[in-house]
Amino acid sequence: MRIGLLGFGTVGQGVYNLTKPREDMEVAWVLCRRELALPDARVTHDFLDILGDASVDTVVEAIGGLHPAREYVMAAMQAGKNVVTANKAMMAEFYDELLPLAQEKGVLLRCTASVGGGIGWLSELERVRRIETVRHVGGIMNGTCNYILDSMTRLGLGYQEALANAQALGYAEADPSTDVDGFDTRHKLVVSANIAFGVSLDFSAVPAAGIRYISDTDVAEFKKHGLVCKLVSCANAYEDGYEAYVEPTLYPITALEAAVPTNYNLITLEGSTSGRQSFYGQGAGRYPTAYNVVQDCMDFIRGRGFYCAYGPKTPVRNDRKKCYYIRTAHPDGWLEGHTAGHWGEAVITEQVAVAEAHDWLQNHPGTFLCALPDGKEGIETC
Ligand code: HSE
Prior knowledge:
By secondary structure, this protein is an alpha/beta fold. Helices cover 35% and strands 25% of the residues. The strands form 5 sheets. The protein has a 6-stranded parallel sheet, with helices on both faces. Strands 10-9-7-11-12 form a 5-stranded antiparallel sheet. α1 (10-19) packs across α12. The longest helix has 16 residues, at 286-301. It binds L-homoserine. L-homoserine binds at residues 117, 142-144, 171, 179, 184, 283-284.
């Protein structure tokens, strides 16, 4: 296999190093903006050099972001090259372009590293759905948020201090919005659900609530009730439709999710016969991510392309009801009308539809919202 590697940042360098000693694949080209010299690969600033080299059969996209990643990947597939990517944003937002094109051109496309970094999550989903129906996918998919929430819960740090530590350790970006506002988790959820259910969920209808406004008083309140807050994704396939959303969620301290430390991920599926299966590991980082990129390259050598056939465009309906913890400086009639009790300064709502709670949150910036554990309808609300 001759690889055209797009990008030589954290993941790109990891892929280069992992493939170096291998005899079954070699990085022939590296696309890199900065000046770089490599002993065994040609370096270019121009993607057309890679596109025009007929000996390159596989493009590994490790530049991230939506553009020009999408354009490069589309052009590579148009030219008959197979593509491995770790880019969850591109896969989630352009699923309806990338999948049909790969099928039309008969090229192989995989993105295992895009969800769960080094965890074999998407590749195992592919195996699961060969023999059973997947009814649920979700869990802790963002290491940065887990690191912040874990630091607040176990170490008693404030949000800003925990975020600064996550930035110093290289988990969070200087602008942490994509992580802390739940957008990264939403991308990972949509890619997972599309593969698990064999559909193309309406991405724009998947709401994401983040952790930006959580405070140490919230965490103290949760502790009083024996609960731990995690940012989780959830997608379910029902007989009559699909639901998908991202939101901070409370777990009893005895739950598996509550025990996930630092920047780890815990991603779960529920199969119709196998039941719950959870996957735990490093969801980011150079070598965990590069590991799954190289695994995808190995799958190409074995002739394995995408995890499922492209499925129909599917609406999302988040009408399941839950109780929420809501702390806001801007209470209104809706919140008062749905109040079941109070924890400290926060309202505990009666059961409201997920879509309704997220719609309300959109219009109340600065609010922290968090779902109570399932089955907590009768939870002590005062
Ligand atoms: N920012 C992501 C995280 C990186 O913290 O999980 C891996 O997708």
